[in-house]
Amino acid sequence: MGTDISGAALDVARGNARMIGVTARFRRADWFDGVTGRFDLIVSNPPYIALSEMAGLSPDVRDWEPHGALTDGADGLTAYRAIAAGACGHLSQGGHVLVEIGPTQAAAVSALFAAQGAETRVIRDLDGRDRVVIARFSA
């Protein structure tokens, strides 16, 4: 199941799925609102750029991508708070969450998931920057 708050983003995802032969359900949702069921894996690339960092982005990104896909309009952690808080209620036992992060967010995002009972680790990208937090919920 793929979710997004943006209908336009869901249209792109549906088209991409058709193009590569993936059968999936898509639902318009604000994080977990209206999402039922249990999942082995939850993956998200949420808007993680702090509002204070937007001006420093490359114009190719800042002026092209929808702002709602880039920033939460606050500290860049709003999505992680929602995902961490709702993950246990939507994961199968032993399930995992993988979230893309900004290169300075590993400690803060890991702490949000740890506060919800997850074991976390960070994966770096090919440039050596922190890029993904993996959260494993054992219960």
TrEMBL record:
Please give the coiled-coil regions recorded for this protein: none
Q: What class of enzyme is it?
A: transferase
- Keywords on this record? Methyltransferase, S-adenosyl-L-methionine, Transferase
InterPro entries per the record?
DNA_methylase_N6_adenine_CS, N5-glutamine_MTase, SAM-dependent_MTases_sf, Small_mtfrase_dom
Entry EC no(s)? 2.1.1.-
GO biological process per UniProt: methylation
Listed name of the protein: Release factor glutamine methyltransferase
What species was this sequence derived from? Answer: Paracoccus haematequi
